[in-house]
Amino acid sequence: MTQPTESSATTETTDDPFLWLEDIYGERQLAWVRGENAVTEQALVTPGFEDSEQRILEVLDSTDRIPMAGKHGDFYYNFWRDAEHRQGVWRRTTWDSYTSAAPDWDVLLDVDALSAAERTEWVWSGALFLRPEEGRPHQRVLVVVSPDGGDAARYREFDLGSRSFVEGGFDVPTAKSRISWAGPDALYVGTDFGPGSMTSSSYPRTVRILTRGGDLSTAEPYFEVDEDHMVALVLHDPTPGFERDLAVDTLDFYTRRSYLREDGVWRLIEVPEDASISLHREWLVVRPRSDWAVEGTTFGGGALLVIGLRAFLDGDRSFEVVFEPDATTSLQSWSWTRNHLLLNLLHDVSSEIRILDPSDGWKAELLDACPPLHSVDAYAVDDEDDLAGDDYWLIATGFLTPSTLYRGTIGGGHSVVKASPSSFDEDLFTVEQHFAVSSDGTRVPYFQIATHGLRLDGNNPTLLSGYGGFEHSMTPAYSGVIGRGWLERTTPEGRHGVYVLANIRGGGEYGPRWHHAALHADRHRAYEDFAAIAADLVERGVTRPALLGCTGRSNGGLLVGNMLTTYPQLFGAISCGVPLLDMRRYSKLSAGYSWIAEYGDPDKPEEWEYVRTFSPYHLLRDDVEYPKTLIWTATSDDRVGPVQARKMAARMKEMGIGDVWFHEALEGGHAGAADNRQAARMHALSFEFLWRALTGFL
């Protein structure tokens, strides 16, 4: 893998004095990182910190947590990390064994052993199964591993029978690839084929057919997209009787063109470019993100439409509307069992699940499995299975409810398969949902987790978390890490930490309209919403600014970066993880070009005029008292990259802003950690900083 250099930065005319930090792997730059890491660790890594880190690691390494499994043929596959398997093992078992208290796992691949043998710190990234012929067992998969936890990964053919990589089999070198099986002896490969083969977003723009024994350099071109589009992808649907190839030209994060291969050419599926589609057997499913007028009928953005694929291709547009959003209910996802459609909905950020039967006029049944203020997801166990094709998994979780895995059969109910253990004393706490009023009058929900009978006198250390972007919803979820790392902490006066999760605009909690409300020039709405929640917490007496911290990662890092620079008076401390911060150059760094659809193009003067208003790197001022700040990232993050975090910290320090801390994990990718040990260190650093900063011990 070619590592990023500073060449692109040093050739550009700019007055940025910290541009030199964009050389990710430069010796001088890494020396600066190590120096800053040492300062931060000296301040935060105390005996108390190490105890907290160990308690968090116990949660992540717990052998009692649910081993989530995917069914393929007769086996249930799981990837697992714990204290004995730092990098993890890929394994499988039977259903009877899986449902037992102590499943008998058959280890297929030990990633720790692989890393030791090949002297590469491989990080598991998944497995792509080749669907076998009818009646035959699964035999071949593509194992996906990353050398550093980043998005760039290597694809290697693996034989399930021999539990080994196939000698002379498919092996695509490390890159930001998009690969799928074309058949038992061919792959559809989108990867870095050399100059001109990658988009401006750093993803594949060409897909080629790689046949067994063939060479990547001479693979046959099959599909390509323009360089300024985001990514090209080709998928093969192997469903017997419905075999087909689908190509997707992703223009940006929210627009795409999908094509079906017919008679040797790609045929455009004529739906709006902002619509998401899926194919299942004879059905085409369409979800437009904005209103779609077709043949005198307007379908609302966020609705779900179904039609027979063949009829659609022949010109029919008589869609069946199987879901319509309203002011409080949105569609989060859909999936198919063999014969039914499952809808995962949110009603005021609480889950609702509907099962639709196409054989009965798309009649919808509400699944009785969703308690208030909880998140429950439903999806098929294995729609390829002739006997269990209409079975489904349910995963239910809440802030104070450890995750529970259920299995059900449509029409036959569901029952518990496994439940996660308790990681902290949930009985001490209660969950409440509140609504703050943003500056434009919009009601914005948030969840509050606090002790029973919380004293509303403003003296509670409170952590506010959020995201607010890319139509991603922040939903209730159990976290032993948050429980141990924040909720169970107490001040000398016996006050527990309060945790708050914001559901601001830019997210998907209320569907596309909630996301659209904070795009481009309206980005400030997300930040106003978050600030309104912070103010509401103070007004309600939960906390006060000196005891209120906030945290966010990635786009959430941009969110809290804007809290730092635009609303510093609201917070006592800020933890900013793997963040975007330099919005002048973000589109030139790592995968940043692909996010122009979310934020705007800073290279267009008219768009930079609004982008600059939420670019924390450019909003720092000398005359402001800023909250205590920890900025953390990972060297190997090839999605956002570490350079924006580096530059922000360096600039704040150069300006003489006090209490600025920086930490960069030298591996771990965009998640900031490549294994449980690194994840525990990352979480512990953030919680330790926030707690000590807010309670006056930093």
From TrEMBL:
Keywords: Hydrolase, Protease, Serine protease. One of its GO terms (molecular function) is oligopeptidase activity. Residues 495-694 form the Peptidase S9 prolyl oligopeptidase catalytic domain. InterPro entries: AB_hydrolase_fold, Pept_S9A_N, Peptidase_S9_cat, Peptidase_S9A, Prolyl_oligopep/macrocyclase. GO terms for cellular component: cytosol. Residues 12-230 form the Peptidase S9A N-terminal domain. This is S9 family peptidase. It holds the Pfam family Peptidase_S9_N. It comes from the Bacteria. GO terms for biological process: proteolysis.
